[in-house]
Design goal:
Blueprint (H helix, E strand, L loop, with lengths): L5 H17 L7 H18 L6 E2 L9 E2 H17 L7 H12 L11 E2 L7 H4 L4 E2 L2 H16 L4
Antiparallel strand pairs: 1-2, 3-4
């Protein structure tokens, strides 16, 4: 995860999980994709914060927490735990994320804390991005809840 942001990692882990779940396990390359998925899971779990979320730049201690990336990462982990590609006990990490995300929901039902992109630039540019509700943040939180329900984790 070095040098990458949580939402980028979220897109990757969730995409890998979706591909693995929808393709037959005997298709050429499936095992290799599973290996990449598992490596990413291990790396991301290492950077999960005690509250259950990930920082916008996971390994950067002064980076803020970010909700949309955290929801995507957790959804990708939920699928792996549910399909038993990774340890089922990872579900407790995902449940912690969902519980924390629930505290970031406004009265109107919108999930806040998603970073709006600052455009080109590195970490310094992203420090100046705005935090707000974004449609994809609320949507991915609902997807996370759906995955948790699907695998009977809630």
């Amino acid at each position: 995860t070095a040098g990458f942001w949580s939402r980028g990692n979220g897109w990757v882990i969730l995409s890998l999980a979706d591909v693995l779940r929808r393709c037959p396990s005997d298709i050429e390359g499936w095992t290799e994709v599973l290996g990449i998925y598992r490596e990413l899971c291990v790396a991301l779990l290492r950077w999960q914060q005690s509250c259950g979320l990930w920082r916008i730049v996971p390994e950067c201690a002064d980076a803020h927490l970010e909700t949309s990336g955290s929801a995507m990462i957790a959804a990708g982990l939920a699928i792996g735990a549910g399909e038993k590609w990774i340890e089922p006990k990872v579900a407790s990490h995902v449940q912690r994320t969902a519980g924390e995300l629930a505290t970031w929901i406004r009265r109107d039902g919108a999930l806040v804390g998603a970073q709006r992109p600052a455009g080109h630039g590195g970490w310094e540019t992203h420090k100046h991005s705005t935090m707000a509700e974004c449609t994809y943040a609320t949507g991915i939180f609902l997807r996370l809840l759906g995955e948790l329900k699907h695998y009977n984790f809630i």
